[in-house]
Amino acid sequence: MALRRSQATHAALIFASLPLSSAFLASKLGFFPSPKATSTASPFQRGRIIGQEGMAGRFARGISMSGQRISVEDVLKNPKWPESWPYSPRDFSRTDESEDEYFYDTPRLVYHIDDKAIGALTEYYGKTIPEKSDILDICSSWVSHFPKDFPQKMGKRVGLGMNEFELSKNEQLSEFVVQNLNKNTKFPFPDNSFDVVTCVVSVDYLIQPLQIFQEVARVLRPGGRFIVSQSNRCFPSKAIRIWLDTNDLEHIFIIGSYFHYAGGFNPAQAFDITPKRSIFSPPSDPMYIIQAEKKLL
């Protein structure tokens, strides 16, 4: 949603690395990774399935019995989706249900992720977004993490966020719109308006993600791409319940399910672009990409 990525100091952000719940996995999620997969992220292990696919309209989940790990890239390779939307309203409840406008009212020009993770995301944008693309950045703020030359190389760059002051400070945008996507899920743009839509570490605040992903599909041009980037930090009081009950790899699977149930997208893919660790410096925040292209007409 248009919830800002800059509402607390970096120290106020927390790691969302919560323990796995076998009951949750069995009732909610399901994927089937390849047997040789490895991971440096949260250690989901592959193995036999517990529960039944589609049980009570929910996901069945493959969890580890064999000691092997799966990679970020494997999470969305062989999903087994239930026929209908598997989530309940409770999954999108939050600890703080007060008006989002109050929570995000005070401008704070701070970063949500560390410099290394930002650098990895900026590099990814530079390598994968074609020149002259029209870009929409949803849940935008005072910085979009685009390469510095994007204002010269790209087409229009529109930000949609909640805080007017923050958006006005974003030099990478050519225009912006102030809107709370948790109240109004309809984008103020015509069909087929953009080549790329981005959402940086904010999908966990959307209480109506299906409608938002459907809107993204509507405003993207055929073949256009929705790039969702995610780390492991959040404002816990405003993050949705299902997010706080799950870990990094589950988050990727949840985002992949949003793409699937929204319709209009090719199958989503996931990538781990976290900078490699060095013995000479501390590790960076993780950075994951979950993306899909709008289907061609």
Automatic annotation (TrEMBL):
InterPro entries: Methyltransf_11, SAM-dependent_MTases_sf
One Pfam family it belongs to: Methyltransf_11
Gene Ontology MF terms: S-adenosylmethionine-dependent methyltransferase activity
Methyltransferase type domain mapped to chain residues: 170-228
Keyword Signal: yes
Leader sequence residues: 1-23
Keyword Signal among UniProt keywords: yes
Keyword tags: Signal
Protein name in UniProt: Methyltransferase type 11 domain-containing protein
Organism the protein comes from: Hanusia phi
Source species taxonomy: Eukaryota, Cryptophyceae, Pyrenomonadales, Geminigeraceae, Hanusia
